[in-house]
Specification:
Layout (H helix, E strand, L loop, with lengths): L1 H12 L3 H6 L7 H4 L11 H16 L4 H13 L3 H7 L8 H16 L6 H8 L4 H8 L3 H48 L2 H18 L1
Helix pairs in contact: 4-5, 4-6, 4-10, 5-6, 7-10
């Protein structure tokens, strides 16, 4: 059930290679972002994709830019593109208030400030223009939130990388153990029983006639 739910979220949110190729921001470097090597699921590219997606998704917090940023940064860090893009969706309207509150708390603690998140949330909800965001960047809240977002995104990326790496190793280890057990069971089977199998198959075939 959980795997099906995660698979549904993945397919619903992750853009295809064709849609990325048509994106006007990615189009100039599409031939590099869409390279087959960046779309393979390997023990190195998957954890890097998870870490990159968490970092970009939390630090940017702007829908659309998160996906583009993850896809573009996947090239220099050699991360899996679909995993990186999919992981950015962990930062969504449901989690954004928590991430912003946590980041502002961290930023205030580090800078010794008491900045409020009210104005920032209003800018997001009203889809403010770039000049309004520029004015906000000059306010007291901006430095605390930006530093907090950076710290939280780095920590989340590191944790995500470790979890993905250990999960990948555990998955590969389980497969190897299953193969080893299968081979051991095959070798432990009595030789006489192995020799009887062809005859039993022929007998069964003859009986079905």
């Amino acid at each position: 059930m959980v795997k099906r739910h995660l698979a549904r979220i993945y397919h619903d949110n992750v853009p295809s290679r064709e849609s990325l190729e048509k994106n006007r921001f990615i189009r100039p470097v599409a031939h590099r972002v869409l390279a087959p090597a960046l779309w393979r699921f390997t023990r190195r590219s998957v954890p890097r994709g998870v870490a990159l997606g968490l970092f970009v998704g939390i630090f940017l917090l702007i829908p659309g830019l998160q996906m583009v940023g993850a896809a573009l940064l996947a090239l220099p860090v050699r991360a899996n593109v679909p995993i990186a893009v999919a992981t950015t969706f962990l930062s969504n309207p449901a989690t954004t208030p928590f991430l912003v509150g946590l980041s502002l708390y961290v930023g205030n603690a580090m800078l010794g400030r008491t900045a409020d998140i009210g104005r920032f949330m209003k800018l997001i909800e009203s889809h403010a223009d770039w000049h309004v965001w520029l004015n906000w960047l000059l306010s007291e809240t901006a430095p605390a939130l930006i530093i907090g977002l950076f710290v939280v995104s780095v920590v989340a990326a590191a944790i995500g990388y470790l979890i993905a790496s250990f999960s990948w190793r555990a998955r590969i280890g389980a497969k190897w153990r299953a193969r080893t057990q299968e081979r051991a069971d095959h070798r432990a089977a009595p030789d006489g029983f192995d020799r009887m199998l062809p005859g039993m198959t022929d007998l069964g075939a003859g009986g079905s006639r």
